[in-house]
Amino acid sequence: MKLQNVSRLFLAFALFVCLTMPISGAQAKILDQNAPGSFADMVENLLPAVVNISSTQKMEEPEDFPELPQFPDGSPFQDFFEEFMERRNGMPMSPQASLGSGFVIDAKQGYIITNNHVVRDADEVRVTFHDDETLVAEVIGTDEKTDLAVLKVDIKEKDLTAVKFGNSDILRVGDWIVAIGNPFGLGGTVTAGIVSARQRDINAGPYDDFIQTDASINRGNSGGPMFDLEGEVIGINTAIFSPSGGSVGIGFAIPSALAKPVIDQIIKYGRTRRGWLGVRIQQVTEEIAESLSLAKATGALVATVTPDGPAEKAGLKAGDIILEFNGQKVSEMRELPRLVAEASIETDAQVTYWRDARKATAKVKIGELEKAEDDGLIETAEKDKQTEGLKVDSVGLSLKKITDMMRRDYAIPSAVDGVVISAVDPKSEASKKGLFEGDVIVEINQQAVNEPEKAKTIIEKAEKGGRPSVLLLINREGEVRFLALKLKKDKTETE
Fold it and tell me: Among residues 54, 101, 196, 222, which one is catalytic?
């Protein structure tokens, strides 16, 4: 037999072995997860649970519509205008409409999930199912902070198909996902992609923790489900980044782990009931960690404590760094709000924090966020904090005059005079040196200051005099230290 024929036979045998060799369960799972041949079977089962949502808001008639003009009896214009006014009174004003998507999570009770912005201020919400049947829905409750809404339809009118939530916490970047929704009002549309990133903060709310995907998501997809390959909802499509208004491959979904507790609360109470700690927090930078003798930048720095709030009653103070909450580590600042929000109200939570270069623990009785908002506790405290102070760009600081509320929130002793740092530019020398909101500047270049304007004048005088830096005397919770800050060079200078 020729050598060429032998080679061909060997290759054919090798190919036969590869095609007929059984593969392990792990190998099959890898092939199934990473390279799906088709989503068709899964989508066929999921489509009946995904709905299109249209909400309408009635428009008020203008009050200044002109009255019927007076015409002589028998005038042909009188009959014309009378007929016009009769028609006008019988015609409703055209309603404003909003289109979105949603999905059924409970077929027995008729609960449907969508985005709050899809049904906000709606007078009527209608749900259209995959078979084109439309039902009027009741809005059970909404939550602006997470942009979620729960609707309900009468199950006596229709048999529903529901889907269940999966665990978004186990998602990995690169996992396959499938999105189904109602883009541009076209009806059930399926797109697929991967998880592009996790824990995205897009400044949409206090609990931002979005899943980013490259699956096509457009206007009208809002409120629709994002599925994993098990057919479970692991996200709720909510927003897109798009300079053009269409999909550019950057979409965002609320993770199921964040959405499910909110939805459960709305179904149970008709509203959210979040836990409340009574603190304002900020990110712990490397410089702040170093200045407080913390080994690495972790946790959430307490910037202010709400008067008479749960944290103050438990002994927490501004300057503490919360490291753990109920046994769960707080690696980054933004993790704490979610942990607190999901804590049971009126229960004791154990908080581990860093103070005076050592760990300490406190038991905090969790309050209710919504009640604190209704009572004005948060608004009153926040309003004063959010007012911009006097900016001094050359040192990257914003300064305010000390008030009684600031003394309580920042633990400033009554005997301490000066100006409070209300904001720190994260790129400034001040941030690198570990200054942060709540610190008190007592002196600048050995001159006492108790007004932001005076502080700015001293710094500007130093700039004009050609001085490279200013010397600050800082008081932090009764402890004082000197700190030299370099002045920013003029933009026209060469650095």
Answer: 222
Task: Dig out the tokens for 117 from the structure.
Answer: 């912005």
% of the chain at pLDDT higher than 90? 52
Calculate the dihedral angle through the C-alpha atoms of 337, 342, 345, 347, rounding to the nearest 10 degrees.
-90
In the residue annotation, 147 being an active-site residue is answered as yes
Q: Give yes or no for a contact between 417 and 450, defined as CB atoms under 8 angstroms apart.
A: yes
293 is catalytic: no
- Evaluate whether 442 touches 474 at the Cβ level (below 8 Å): yes
Count Cα neighbours of 246 within 13 Å in the Cβ-side half-sphere.
1
The pLDDT assigned to 196 comes to 96
So where are the chain's domains? 168-269, 275-379, 387-486
- Superfamily for the 387-486 domain: PDZ domain (2.30.42.10)
Q: In this structure, which CATH number among 2.30.42.10, 4.10.520.10, 1.10.3720.10, 1.10.60.30 belongs to the domain 275-379?
A: 2.30.42.10
Distance, in Å, from the CA atom of 327 to the CA atom of 137, rounded to the nearest integer, reads: 41
CATH 2.40.50.140 fits 168-269, yes or no: no
Per residue in 110-134, pLDDT tens? 999 999 999 988 889 999 999 999 9
Check for a shared fold between 275-379 and 387-486: yes
Say which of 101, 117, 208, 409 is annotated catalytic: 117
The rounded distance, in Å, linking the Cα atoms of 476 and 319 is: 8
Which of the residues 143, 147, 409, 439 is marked catalytic? 147
CB 273 within 8 A of CB 367: no
**Beta carbons of 422 and 399 less than 8 angstroms apart:** yes
Contact 289, 408 (CB under 8 A): no
C-alpha torsion sign, points 361, 364, 366, 372: negative
462 — phi, psi (to 5°)? -65, -40
**130 is an active site residue:** no
pLDDT digits (tens, 9 = 90+) for 170-186: 999 999 999 999 888 78
Predicted model pTM:
0.65
Task: Count, in order, helices (H) and strands (E) of the chain.
Answer: 14, 27
d(CA 201, CA 207): 8
Can you give 264-329 as a three-state secondary structure string? HHHHHHCCCCCEECCEEEEECCHHHHHHCCCCCCCCEEEEEECCCCHHHHCCCCCCCEEEEECCEE
State whether residue 5 is helix, strand or coil: helix
